[in-house]
Amino acid sequence: MSVRETGLPGDGDDGPELVGRAAERAALSAALSGAGNAVLLRGDPGIGKTSLLEWAVRRARAADTRVLRMVGAAAESGLAYAALHQVLWPLLDESAGLPPAQQDALERALGVREGAPPDGFALGDAALGLLARTAARRPLLVVLDDLQWSDETSATVFAFLQRRIERTAVVLLAATRDEEARFDGPTSTVIDVGCLSSDEAGVLVDSRCPDLESGVRHRILHEAGGNPLALTELPLQLDPDVGRGALPLPDHLPVGTRLGRLFEERIGRLSSPARDRLLRLALGEAGRRADLPGARVRVPHPPGDDGLREELTDSGLAVVDPATSELRFRHPLVASCVVELAPKAAVRKAHLRIAALLPPNHPQRALHLSAGTVDPDEGTASCLERAAEEMAQRRGEVEAARLYGRAAALSESPSGAVRRWIMAASLATRGAAPLDFIRRLLDEASRHPVPEDLAVLHQFSIAFFQLHEGSDYRAPAVVMSEILDGLGALPQEEPGGLRDSLFCLLILTTVYTGDDALWRNLDRHISQASPLAALCYDVWKDPARTAHGAAERLRPVLAALTPEQEAMSVWLILWTAVGADVIGEHPELLGRLQRQHLWGTRSFLDLVTCRDDVIRGRWESALRTAGRGARESAARGFDIHRMTYHLHAGFVLAGRGEAEALDALHEQLGPWARERGLRFLLDGMHAHRSLLALGAGRYEDAYAHAAAVTPPGTLPARAPWFLHSFLDLVEAAGHTGRGEQARAHVDAAVAAGVSEISGHHAFTVAAASALVAQDDALFRAALARPGAEQWPLTHARLHLAYGGHLRRRSRRKDAVLPLLEARRVFAGLGAVQWVAAADRELSAAGGAVPAAGRGETRPVLTAQERRIAELAAGGLTNREIANRVRVSPRTVGAHLYRIFPKLGVTSRAALSEALADAGARRSAPDTR
Fold first, then answer.
1. Numbers of helices and strands, H then E, in the chain
2. From the CA atom positions of the chain, what is the Rg in Å?
3. Most confident of 66-70, 205-209, 881-885
4. DSSP labels for 740-772?
5. By C-alpha distance, which of 565, 571, 485, 567 is closest to 521?
6. What is the pTM of this model?
7. CA–CA separation, 96 vs 115, rounded Å?
8. Among residues 738, 743, 742, 766, which one has the least CA distance to residue 754?
């Protein structure tokens, strides 16, 4: 039998043609043929992501495209900017042509220039500028392999780039094992790389090992399960006599989770020095300029390295990168296998040897010392603590927390350990690290007496954890109140300090619960608040009476903050702005806050913008943000974020009349909120139901749900979310003969001066006033308010009501235009029930109802529905679709039940044409 050790498919300078992968190659080719595109490949280890990237790199180089590469490594995942350094370091000399601010941002992030690193937005903007400038002279391909090992700070910049490269000559290709990872830019594509088909797997095995005995071939195909790496490597592990059928196959072949051990025999054939060199390569010693922030030195080649490099390349485990002439693994899985197979003592020894090669101030030296140390060692712990302090200054809080935690574990004294555990928990809290990580740090700190000077910091970390862990929302409020009691005698801090953070979380907790005792407790402490915290208190406690002019009041408060204070006060600023419903009136505020790169800040910002997207009719964007945010929040244990994303998504589902989807969402949201007594979420669910019922013409139900939020004629204090259902109550009351209640509700808003809170409040009150009075002048005045179209659902509902008002007064001709405008907006939102209501009014007015065939009335498919429709159109069964999208076959059937009427079809055979038609309509310009 001839077994050709040709390595992995797609490797090498020329590289063989990939087997199968037609769809993936087509997508990559399309991305490479244009500019400003981004593609994310997702899949299991060994599934062929790296081979696809190599295939794309060869095509790019053949087209004279410059290629920049990053290969993620677990050893560097805790070091801020390490992955970004790999990409940008080769371009550093070209940064001189950038504007001074961008050049400064890049050089500080890469450690070339002294000073704290820039914020996430400034660095992302600088990186984009450098890549765009480079690509303007020669097309540029950026390849990010093993993205799951990228450090968080670099990952944030990469996420920024994939959203912003559409107007550049840069193409971004990435691969990750993380099945939940997303690229969501306007020119981004996500591809789930699956197993090869049976036929493709046979072709791949035959191309590598053409002389396999049929039984052996069948066994390999069966156990490899379509995994390209297993299909390529399994035959290489067989004795030649087994391969040709002379000897029996072993009982078990190493596949699936055992795939990494496929390289065991090949590694075992290496000399001891070569194995050591391979292990150091896997642990981060690259024999190249260190791709790390702050390192502008070359890690020296160990003595005799040239001979070892030849041995390693001959083994097929490593290759020499043609672009850099440096050694790298043929496939990322090899590195994992090398470390897994090495004795633990050898791994520790390799870490210490790498540390010895690095300068004393090199940022990764502490990591290698830590990994090579077992017993407590104060020298190593101090080294790690210094590295953690530097990392925190670079705004890598989560990475710094991990370093502090390791330093604590290596501390020689209990007093030193507890201080480091507390600092680790505090930094993890600031960085909104996964809650399981924060819990472990707090558990460790609880084993020792807490130093008095760190007690407040420790209490705050506990309160933060309890609040976001979500089992009890009153306990953390008590803890925060006790902290404020202790701070009462201290001088007032600068805004953005601990006091502001406490007030933000305390106000948030109190608002979510609506608990009177917590409100009274907050009232007791408000005299200690900064101007920003006091304004936040005003807009949430009783907005109908205390939030007047909030948009304008916020401006001078923000203007008085320094950039550092603003960065520390992000959550308080956002919570204030969303409470006053003025996010849309402060675009410059969002622009500045988007510069923050911590996950907690980005998630909170996404929550705010998601809510704003709902209000302003950007419903597809809102659903995308809510879906992504809920997944990320669940993965990190932040259930309160996850449920708030569900709350926002519920308003879109209610507006579109998707009753079944809303029921499913409430099955998750309702029990969770009721168990914890979270009135904010429970009243939000009532608001969902009132909107859904109004669209369906079930006015009694709508009234009951809206009145459950705020009784008619009252705008009670400590119910700051009254605007959610204010118009619903007035409209439902009008339809159910409760004119007095509707009028009383509007009168209460007018008397309280609700219109003075924000533009959205003013328009809502004007619309409600017109509905109650049924007066032409009030209708026209409300519709003519500047910026009224910013709130399309309310605007369209007012047009619908005005058209109905005109029709009932026998002004049928005049009624047609407002009804058509209402219908147009409803159709654009995908609000099917409201479109039907407009159609009924149009028919009653004698107007021509637009033909359904034009597609205006067809609701927009959700992202999940579209994916299921596309798979069904491709001929997949419900069970096959269920396996692809990870739901049950019954759920797939329920989705198709809703999809067919949305697309106007009755069978799977018609799906392809309907999807194409829907896509054409969605991309066609609006010529009206």
1. 47, 7
2. 31
3. 66-70
4. HHHHHHHHHHHHHTGGGT-HHHHHHHHHHHHHH
5. 485
6. 0.70
7. 18
8. 766
